[in-house]
Every structure is written in C-alpha cells, then in structure tokens.
Amino acid sequence: MENNRPRAHIPRRQSHPSTASQRGAMKTIIEPFRIKSVEPIHLTTPAEREARLREAAYNVFLLKSDDVLIDLLTDSGTSAMSSEQWAGMMRGDESYAGSPSFYRFEQAVQDIFGFKYVFPTHQGRAAERILFSVMCKPGDVVPSNTHFDTTRANVEFTGAKAVDLVIPEGRQPATIHPFKGNMDVAALERLIAEVGREKIPLCMLTVTNNSGGGQPVSMANVRAVSAVCRKHGIPLYIDACRFGENAWFIKLREEGYADKAPIDIAREMFAHADGATMSAKKDGLANIGGFIASNDAQVAQQERNLLILTEGFPTYGGLAGRDLEAIAIGLREALDEDYLLYRITSTTYLGRHISAAGVPIVQPPGGHAVYIDAAAFFPHIPPAELPGQALVVELYREAGIRAVEIGTVMFGKRDPATGQESTAPMELVRLAIPRRVYTQSHVDYVVEAILNVFGRRDAVRGYRFTEQAPFLRHFTARFAPLGG
After folding, report:
1. What rounded mean pLDDT belongs to the chain?
2. Which residues make up the CATH 3.90.1150.10 domain(s) of the chain?
3. pTM score of the predicted model
C-alpha cells in the first residue's frame, strides 16, 4: 500500500524507456503518425463569424461545423481513425445476430476491462440510460467523483439524485494536485451513513474526471472507493470514457507504476469495479459507439432485455458491424505508449503556453482538454451573467474556434416555480482536443487566439438565456448579449 501513494508533486514530462530509446537524444515529441488523407477547413471573415453567431443565438452548438475553423467543442466521436481501423471496417460483418465483428469487439473489451457480460450501445449515454433505468428508482442517491452532463441527466431522469464527491482540491482550479479527479472517500462514507445503504443502488467513478477539468483518478483512490463500496455492498461502476489517459497519468505520477504498461494499469483499475459504462467515442478512438459491462448475471439480464427494447439485438446494440470492428481496434490503440505520450504532451503544451501568459486554467492541464477558469478570466462578469458562455462566444468571434462552456449553462438550473437560476461551483470553458486530428500549428493558432481575447477581456460583457430546455439545456439553449 505504501508504494502506491500518489506523489505530492507533478513530475516533469517523462518518456517511457522504449519511447526514449527510439527517439535517441531528441527532445521534441512528434505526432506518432503520418497524415494519409486531408480535409479542407473553411476560413471565415470576422463579419461572417458575427453573422453566424447571431443566427445561432450565441450558442456554438447551433453553428454549422463548416463555419468552424478549429473545433474543440468535444473530443467525443471526433477522432481520426487509423489505417488499421479503416481496414477493420472493411471486414465488418453486418449479420443481425451473432456477427463475428461482435465477438472481436467482445473479446477486446473483456481482455482490457475484464467484465463477464458486455453489451454494445450506440454511444455512452445509451449505456448510462440502460444502467440507471435498471439500477435506480425515485429517491435513490448515486455518488460520483463528478457526474458529467449526460450521466447526471440520466440519473435524475429516473428520479434519483446525483451527488458529486470530488476531493476539495478538485474544486480549486489553480491548486496543483497530481490526482484532482479523486473521490473524497470520507465524504462517501458520510453520505452512506446519512442516506443509508439501501438508498444507494450504485457508486460511479469517472476516469478521467471530465467535469472536474479532465483530471485523473489515482489507483490508490480507485482501491479505496472500491473497499468502501464492498464493505457496504454497493456496486462500483466506472465511467471508462478516458481510461487510457487515466492509466497514463497513473504511470507518470503514482509510485509503483512507472514500469507498468498502460494495459496492465487499466486491467488493475477495472479489477476493483463491478461494471463499467463507456463512450467508445473517446478512448475507443471511434466515431460512434459505446458499451455497458457487468459481472452481475441478474443485472446483465435486465440490461439485455432493455437493450433489445431500445438499442437492438445484443450482438449489435445499435451499431453496424464495421463500428464494432473500429472500436475493437481503437481500444488497443488508445493504450499505445507512443500515442499516449504525444496525446498528453500536446494538451500540456496548450495549457502551459496560455498559463504562462497569465490565462487562468485548471491546473495541471488535463488529458483530453485544457479548461480555462472563465470566472477568473472575466472577474467582472458574475456567474449569473454566464462568463463561460461569454468566453465561448469570444473565441469563435476572434478566430473561428469552437469550445464548450462547463459551468452555469451546463450545470446550473432554473427553478420552474420561481424562475431563479442556481449557479455552478466552477465556471469553466473546455478546449477538448480531438485525437490525431490537429497539428502543432493548429495548437499554436489556438494559443494566439486565446491570448488575443485575454488582452481585451475587460471590454467583454455577459449573456442571458432567452430559451432553454428542462434537461441538457446547453445543447439547444439560446442567448442574448447583455449591455448591447
């Protein structure tokens, strides 16, 4: 146990011995791939961007992608697939039942994650809907380090309550901590004592912690959360969207793991859990798809029945055979050490460059994204006037860059009786970097744009809602600028 305690500092960038020997004395980390096909992107003028913003009611989700130059809205489903994945897609078998593509997919998931029962779904939120529909009822409580938007919405749609229990450092953007995604284990124990074990059908742990800045969870924390859950007989499920990146951070930052391969770290993580959900559009390196997995035969039977009703037969689960092939290959590619070194280094590069110029970000930079602290970026804009939305708009206005607000727009709520808005604990803007899509010059362009907006930040004003949906409002909400 002593050897697995996280270090108290963030180490400098490290290279795995095999990677370092291949690069020799070179210090530059390059993209571990060659570009085989290119897609043109459209350069818009400032006047065109202003018009597009007005047409979209200042919600960048409503922009046409053709009008976006650098799209950092999400890393979900936006990866560039490898030549091996495209080759696998040509092998995809589209049989309705019992396709060999499914069995290759199942074998890959079981080999890495270790769960007995595996069902494909068309994406992660479908897996969440099935899981919580089976496990939750009105009045239940589901703890997590931090629920993401679709997770929270699917929990609350069942009438249960989603509770976030991230460690205190995870709520402090500027604080340096190697594993800010960790769950507060003492808080979990207090919650169980307060509401009673019978009110907690399962516990969720998301790796990495997306809403908390893409921050990793340590193996020691996974082990501790698992121990509490097993003591109380509560199933532990892991949201595995970015499991490869989390494994890499454990390798870099946690004692006892430097010489372990990412796949072995991943296997150890999931050995402490009872099941998992995953959007394979992240660390599955696929453009669509996901899965739900479990070791509980009774739960799996209920999940299978609901999946047949809503997704399709259990051996395709709403996916084409070619997509199952792409996921099976992508899950393994996401654990490649050269790829992970490049991936984390590129994200860190963006974070360090804007931070060095004074831009406040969630420290240290996460794995899949850099999160700007919009409340500190715009200290003159109060949370009720949506500083994150203001920054998202300004990045598109400045340079055609699309990011996403992760603050009061995404996680706040309007009381239907009083119309009063609640605000989020943090006002963040996420710059999510698609995998294997953009080059170093694209990242440098993003840095320049952010610094330009930062230089004129005092002149920016906030926004107000003009229209919003009761669930996941950030996708379709409409806004108007305040102050002209």
Report:
1. 92
2. 17-75+337-481
3. 0.89
